[in-house]
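#random but structural
TW: two for the price of one
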Amino acid sequence: MGEISLRRRRDPASGEDVHEVKLGDEFLMSSLFTAGEIALAELGLAEVAGSGLDVVVGGLGLGYTADAVLKDARVRSLTVIEALGEVIDWHERGLVPLGAGLTADPRCRLARGDFFSLVGDSRRLDPDSADRRFHAVLVDIDHSPEHVLHPSHARFYRPDGLRVLAGLLHPGGVFALWSDDPPDEQFNSALGDVFSATEAHVVTFGNQLTGGTSTNTVYVARTPEG
């Protein structure tokens, strides 16, 4: 998909270090803008009942979604699936601010793998257990369902792909997705074909670069109760 890179720079306005991830010439993530990634965890887990939760995060990035998941005391286990070994290495070596906390938490496992292949081809999210189900799957990999990093990801966002994902959830389980685009009616419709309840949340946050505000979208969908 291109060359992945991590860079650290000093923000001239605040004097703080800023960590940024790029894929080729595209910015994937910046520590300046984390509200959407945190909201992905908080909004997704808010829809899950009970405790002893087993959670999957698709896409590690700088770790803000995973960190927010682990702040929920109900979480029993977290599996973070990341396609790029370099990104996992940044966390294990402490090159990003949240790496030490994620790798030290016994509930958290950073697993190298292609999330989309695991769902679409293997039809499992735990390589050690074909039948394992999860209470929540939270995904932040592509820019949006329409703006994917690789063409092979596109099938996941269609009803057939979402139906496979829903089969990996417990009854009443939640699928949540981060998107950089406004709510998309076509994707909302695909979610509605598969899940019993869906909602698109618009997350607004301050943009230090423009002096205004920006938005992300977090889609939250739930399977029927058993």
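TW: number two ↓
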Amino acid sequence: MKRFVLLAFLICGFLIHACGGSNPPASSGPTTIVQPLALPGPYPVACSNVEQDFSLVAPGEEAKEYWEGFPSTSGAPQYMTDLLADRADTLSVTVTAPDNEDLYGSFAGEPVQFVVIVCYPTVANNPNADYPLPTGKVVPHMQNGPEPPLFADDTARYPVLAFSHGYGGSPISNDYIDALSWFASYGYVVVAPFHGDPRFSNLKIEDLSDAVKVLSHLSDFVALQALRPLSMSAALDLVLANPQYSDHVDATQIGGFGASIGGETLMLMGGAGLTTSLVFDWTRVTVDPRIKAAVGYIPYFGQPFLPSFGRDQHGLDGITLPYLAISGTADTTAPLDVTQEGISRLAGPGELVALVGVKHGLSQAAVNDIFTWSLTFLNAEVRGDPTAQQQLSTMASVEGGVDDYVVIPYNGP
């Protein structure tokens, strides 16, 4: 009965919030309107091998359901590894979940495999063809077999970007492969695991019925969230130790970009405490000090009925990871006010930008806004670019696109 009453109370909070609005722009603060960065950037892009045999896709299924880890129509588990045509030359890592049932539930102590893709700036005359995907997208200049990557400058060391996609996505689903390519076109080596979230918890938080499912199966949802930062750190370990990449990346300049729950993943890598119970207890999952700064687009910081980082987001107290959150004012899955509460608790440089009218998902109208804000922040905090740092301190919005404004101003160097 107590559990039922608590569940009902939390659901009421969800319903009340769903009807709420967003805060208006502050009357004072940064005032400079900047021109959007061109997409793509100055570099051609190539990616590591993810060759697949699409004839292995079961009748009634789609390849992207394997990429994303959704179970088959019969309920059988399936994942990206089931389609790989060149396993030996596809990057992957195996993560063994720590023996902690509070965080990892039934997956505690179990090994889990994660496929990884890397995209990077390449030479203008890269001979490798784009690899077509059944969605109509392509993996640009994909490496074939064991051949090494062709970097734009073989003597340079490039900054690294840990890329964490949203729930139920993958690095090559929808517009994510475009996002990887755009970051790489600005000189980042982008490292992205296929999280395969539905392998752990086939749930969402988009409406009341989803909220009930999440609260009723919280241990699975906690395990999904806790495994994500571990897989991201393992993917970085893999690339930094791989002789094909290690001499071409700068291990002192590693940033992160996450969409939706991927934004939460990067914050967990910064040492944030994750909510583990319906009474908002929280536990630190990990800390990866290599991440110098991170950007979250429509970052999932939880809901009023279940904040991601403990009661009143206290799991973020003392966190020094520089973090830019870009939120939509019409987003009810990752509400702006919940994110604002979290960003306001950070002890390190933080900033919150609002995109007017944007819901949960990639807004095509806002693409230039998103990447101009993101690259400016990453260049400032990861590359230590003083020009970008100065621009952030005065930047109020990006010309064109959707209306955007600063909710919490940048307080970095």
